[in-house]
Specification:
Elements lengths: L3 E4 L2 E3 L5 E7 L8 E7 L6 E7 L4 E4 L7 E6 L4 E6 L8 E8 L5 H7 L6 E2 L3 E5 L2
Parallel strand pairs: 2-11
Antiparallel strand pairs: 1-3, 3-8, 4-5, 4-9, 5-6, 7-8, 9-10, 9-11
C-alpha cells in the first residue's frame, strides 16, 4: 500500500516560514492531482491548496493566497508546501492528499474526502510568539 508521509512541521513565530514535505512510498506520477489540507483546532479539515498536473491548474484558498506555494517533483516522489509570512490562524495539522484521476483543482480542495484516494498522517504546524 502506498504511503504518504509528511514532515517539516513545528513551532514558528508569526511572520516566519516553513516548508512541508510529503514523501510518497510509491510513484507520485500515478497521482494526477495533489493537495494540502489543514485542520485547525476545533474546526473541520479544509483544502488549502490543490493542483492538477494534466491541466496545470492550481487552487489556493483565499487565506493563503500569495503566501503558500504547492509544488511536486515526480522524480523525487515528493510534494512540498512552502509557507511564508505565517500567521497564528495557520496553526493546525497539515495533511497531504492525492487523487489518481485528474480532477478540477478547486473541486478537489472543496470536496475533500469524497474525491481523495490517499491521505498522509499529518504534521503539526504551530504559529505562536
Amino acid at each position: 500500500q502506498v504511503q504518504f508521509v509528511e514532515s517539516g512541521g513545528g513551532l514558528v513565530q508569526p511572520g516566519g516560514s516553513l516548508r512541508l514535505s510529503c514523501l510518497v512510498s510509491g510513484l507520485l506520477a500515478d497521482y494526477s492531482a495533489i493537495g494540502w489540507f489543514r485542520q485547525a483546532p476545533g474546526k473541520e479539515r479544509e483544502g488549502i491548496t490543490c493542483t492538477n498536473s494534466p491541466y496545470g491548474t492550481t487552487y489556493y484558498t483565499d487565506s493563503v493566497k500569495g503566501r503558500f506555494t504547492i509544488s511536486r517533483d515526480n522524480a523525487k516522489n515528493t510534494v512540498w508546501l512552502q509557507m511564508n509570512d505565517l500567521k497564528p490562524e495557520d496553526t493546525g495539522v497539515y495533511y497531504c492528499a492525492a487523487r489518481r484521476e485528474s480532477a478540477n483543482a478547486e473541486a478537489m480542495c472543496l470536496l475533500g474526502e469524497s474525491v481523495i484516494d490517499s491521505w498522509g498522517e499529518g504534521t503539526q504546524v504551530t504559529v505562536s510568539s
